[in-house]
Design a protein that fits this description.
The relative contact order is 0.24. The protein has 3 helices and 3 strands. The protein has helices at about 1-15, 40-45, 50-65, and strands at about 20-25, 30-35, 70-75. This is RNA-binding protein KhpA.
Length: about 80
C-alpha cells in the first residue's frame, strides 16, 4: 500500500514517470521505502528546501499511522 501511494504521488510530479522505482525493505518495527527517479527529476521530488519531500513523508506517515509501524522514505540519487 505504501509503495503504491509513493509511486502514485511521485509519478504525478516527475517528467519521466517510467523511471520511478520504489524498493521496499521490511523490518520488524519499520519499513524503508527507497525511491529512485531520473537524475533530472530529483529536484522536482525534493522541492525547494525539501518541502515536497517533507510533504510526501507527512502523507506517508498519515497513511500508515494505524499499522503502528514506522515508515521511512529515502530518496536515492
Amino acid at each position: 500500500m505504501e509503495k503504491d501511494l509513493v509511486e502514485y504521488i511521485v509519478k504525478s510530479l516527475v517528467d519521466d514517470p517510467s523511471s520511478v522505482q520504489v524498493n521496499v525493505i521490511e523490518g520488524e518495527k519499520s519499513t524503508i521505502l527507497e525511491l529512485r527517479v531520473a537524475p533530472d527529476d530529483i529536484g522536482k521530488v525534493i522541492g525547494k528546501h525539501g518541502r515536497i519531500a517533507k510533504a510526501i513523508r507527512t502523507v506517508l506517515q498519515a497513511a500508515t499511522a494505524k499499522s503502528g509501524k514506522r515508515t521511512v522514505l529515502e530518496i536515492l540519487d
